[in-house]
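Entry 14. Structure prediction run on the chain below.
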Amino acid sequence: MQTVVVGGHSRKIGKTSVMAGLIRGLSSFGWTAAKITQHSHGAAGLQSACAGAGIAEDFILTEERTASGESDTSRYLAAGARRSLWLRARQGSLQRAVPVLLGALGSDPYVMIESNSILNFLKPDLCLFVGDSRVRDFKPSARRFLKRADAIVSVGPLDTCVWPGIEPCGFRSKPVFALRHPDELNLGLCRFVRRKLQFPAPTA
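Output returned:
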């Protein structure tokens, strides 16, 4: 299994759109997509919102079945993912939840995961860091992610001065792929991912 992890410095900066664009642009990979969401107020609300697989005391794992919904996991399917999973976990429970997710991924050859915290439990083949300095929040998990990122995907301005304590060299030392909009398909980024995963280029 080869894995790509897509993370970023905050919520609602276009990580799902970037991931959907890669799934669409690299459809020959036959991606399995996964999203990890952590919650700080227990799992009772999660259990009531979910039916079926993976229910545990502190995490829930479900597989998306429809590409027509509005959820992020539906967007993965609509972009062309062959499977789409969603792991919802209480803060502090990922150590128990991640093995369940990995078991569900099984022998799927190409997996893309939207998460920062997964890096605490998995060494992916490629990490992509999504950034937009119009959003001032910079989560602690993102600081760790930035150090391990192989490339930056800029979905807006990338002015590191707005993030106190973030060294600009953490961005300058990595290739940057700029998008005018998170839904834009960046062919250079697609080529970068293909090369990193050593997947042969399509023939004409």
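The longest strand covers residues 32-39.
Filed with the rest of this week's runs.
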